[in-house]
């Protein structure tokens, strides 16, 4: 490292040197003139060798900051030159610190931040002072930091990924939730330590893996479980269903189609269903009647069907859209 070349014309030049803290053998020199001696002054460091000569070596200290090296020359005629000055910027070596969690729940997002340098390179290839990750496996992350002049520093951070619970649960019955009938909800993960059940976003106060619920009103319901394990990791799961009124159905065992307006039509009787499809067969297996939402009046091909037993298959479509098939025998009496 050279401070510069100076002349007795009292003109001098100056430059700025950048060096790392702790440098123990930094060299500074000026042009050697025969018969001259040189007086060096240093702040922030110690001259090891060369005082009085045109070439010195300095042991810089441990403090970062701007410092100064200056020199005057006395020639053989005992004339003293103007002072020549070099500004020296002592850069601290990077000393990195990573901030972030020590452990994280699986599949959770987290970030790591590094400080202590100017430029960074992470183990995952990213640059910048922060990375954003999703926890998968326990991983030892590292970051390398530089400040352009001094040796790099490397810092490590081991992130332990802990398991999260499974909030999956089942309902019984699975689909047909009926008003005023109990529905059972059961979670099965044995790692859960705290169960938070909500029905339509309202905590029902149950803290156990199963409970029964009787829905007193029809409508849409969402049941949510937030499950916490011993690591305080959380998982959520929900089941949504519509609560319907119970299907109430009666199918007569006989009818008398004699046009007296009493029991003249064979059809299912009840409430809380949308529609029905009906097939009627004679005792030979022949189809004698087929309809949707219309009962049988006892006629076949425009003629009165004879008295006797007939077989029916009736498919009921409930309010929830699910279908239920009912079969049996009906007696036609004339």
Give the radius of gyration: 46 Å
Shape: rod-shaped
- Please list the strands of the largest sheet in the order they lie side by side: 16-22-21-18-19
- What's the architecture of the largest domain, going by CATH? Sandwich
| Total number of strands | 31
Q: How far do the termini sit from each other?
A: 124 Å
What is the tally of helical segments?
0
Uncertain runs are: 1-13
Compact summary:
By secondary structure, this protein is mostly beta strands. It has no helices and 31 strands.
How would you describe this structure in keywords?
single chain, Immunoglobulin-like, 334 residues, mainly beta, 4 domains, 31 strands, 0% helix, rod-shaped, disordered N terminus, five-stranded mixed beta sheet
Break the fold down into its secondary structure elements and pairings.
Layout: E1 15-20, E2 26-29, E3 37-43, E4 45-49, E5 55-60, E6 65-74, E7 84-91, E8 97-99, E9 103-105, E10 109-115, E11 119-122, E12 130-134, E13 139-146, E14 153-162, E15 169-172, E16 177-178, E17 182-187, E18 192-199, E19 202-203, E20 210-214, E21 219-229, E22 234-244, E23 248-250, E24 254-255, E25 269-271, E26 273-281, E27 287-292, E28 299-300, E29 303-304, E30 308-318, E31 323-332
Parallel strand pairs: 1-7, 9-14, 16-22, 24-31
Antiparallel strand pairs: 2-5, 3-6, 4-5, 6-7, 8-10, 10-12, 11-13, 13-14, 15-17, 17-20, 18-19, 18-21, 21-22, 23-25, 26-27, 26-30, 28-29, 30-31
């Amino acid at each position: 490292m050279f401070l510069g070349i100076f002349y007795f014309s009292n003109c001098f030049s100056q430059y700025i040197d950048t060096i790392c803290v702790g440098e123990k053998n930094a060299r500074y020199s000026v042009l050697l003139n025969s018969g001259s001696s040189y007086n060096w002054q240093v702040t922030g460091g110690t001259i090891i060798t060369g005082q009085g000569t045109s070439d010195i070596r300095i042991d810089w200290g441990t403090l970062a900051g701007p410092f100064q090296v200056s020199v005057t020359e006395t020639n053989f005629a005992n004339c003293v030159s103007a002072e020549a000055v070099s500004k020296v910027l002592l850069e601290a070596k990077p000393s990195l610190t990573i901030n972030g969690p020590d452990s994280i729940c699986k599949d959770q997002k987290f970030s790591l931040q590094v400080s202590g340098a100017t430029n960074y390179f992470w183990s995952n290839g990213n640059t910048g002072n922060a990375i954003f990750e999703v926890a998968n496996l326990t991983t030892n992350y590292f970051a390398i930091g530089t400040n352009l002049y001094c040796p790099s520093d490397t810092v490590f951070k081991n992130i332990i990924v802990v398991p999260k619970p499974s909030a999956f649960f089942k309902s019984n019955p699975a689909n047909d939730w009926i008003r005023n009938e109990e529905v059972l909800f059961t979670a099965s993960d044995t790692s859960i330590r705290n169960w938070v059940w909500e029905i339509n976003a309202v905590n029902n106060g149950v803290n156990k893996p199963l409970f029964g619920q009787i829905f007193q009103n029809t409508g849409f319901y969402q049941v949510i479980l937030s499950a916490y394990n011993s690591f305080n990791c959380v998982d959520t799961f929900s089941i949504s269903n519509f609560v319907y009124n119970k299907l109430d159905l009666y199918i007569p065992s006989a009818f008398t189609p004699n046009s007296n307006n009493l029991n003249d039509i064979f059809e299912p009787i009840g409430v809380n269903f949308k529609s029905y499809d009906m097939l009627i067969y004679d005792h030979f297996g022949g189809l004698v009647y087929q309809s949707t939402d219309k009962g049988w009046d006892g006629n076949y091909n425009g003629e009165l069907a004879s008295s006797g037993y007939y077989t029916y298959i009736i498919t009921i479509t409930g309010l929830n859209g699910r279908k239920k098939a009912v079969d049996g025998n009906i007696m036609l009496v004339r």
